[in-house]
Model the fold of this input.
Amino acid sequence: MKHRRFQDLILLEDENLIAINKPSAIASLHDRFGTEPSIQSMAQDYFEDAQLCHRLDKETSGVLLIAKNPDTYRSMSISFEKREVDKTYWAITDGRHYFKQLTVDIPLAVSSKGRAKVDKQGGKIAETVFTVMETFRHFSLVECKPITGRLHQIRIHLATQNAPISGDTTYGGELPYLKSIKKNYQLSRDGEIRPMIQRAALHAKSIQFSLHDKDYFIDADLPKDMAVFLKLLRKYDCE
Done:
């Protein structure tokens, strides 16, 4: 896959911080072998002292913050630790749901295979608030506000509510096909049936925080794959 230039991802840059709209299918950090490109390596090629303030799953798109100096990195680390950073994600989930400020506070742990799992006895506190923004016949668009920042927290918390993220086959989501919602569906010329989205439909939509006496609100447009998925649902999966 050809990745976009780092400069093309930048939403905001000042003397302390770079905010980007991370594409899906690229890891935040280096892999163990260092063979695949990462946001970290791209950022350091662009600005030598760049350090990621947090991370997003490889499949997840959206707002990602990068510090340009150690003082900013320390300040942001403290803000994340104190839960002073307001993060909002959008997810498209399987099924029709009606969550309104639903708080899910199920403890999570990490398995030996690097997956999150519910662990009510030994897990770490994890809390997410969910509100459905738009419903379709077979799917829902959900606003997700993570209070804590555990591995795969939004994904598994939604799965516990019988609302797995569309395309998130790791946690019970299904690949969504147009043929299941469009009447008189016809195959493409090559005869191949492709899902409407080929990854977990999760996007870090916005982030709000204060840094060095300056207030920030950064919003990231939906990437093409998720925007097209929503467009198809609004056309073919409404009442």
Observations:
- The chain has one domain: 6-233.
- The chain has a mean pLDDT of 93.
- Residues 6-233 form a domain with the Pseudouridine synthase fold (CATH 3.30.2350.10).
- The chain has five helices and twelve strands.
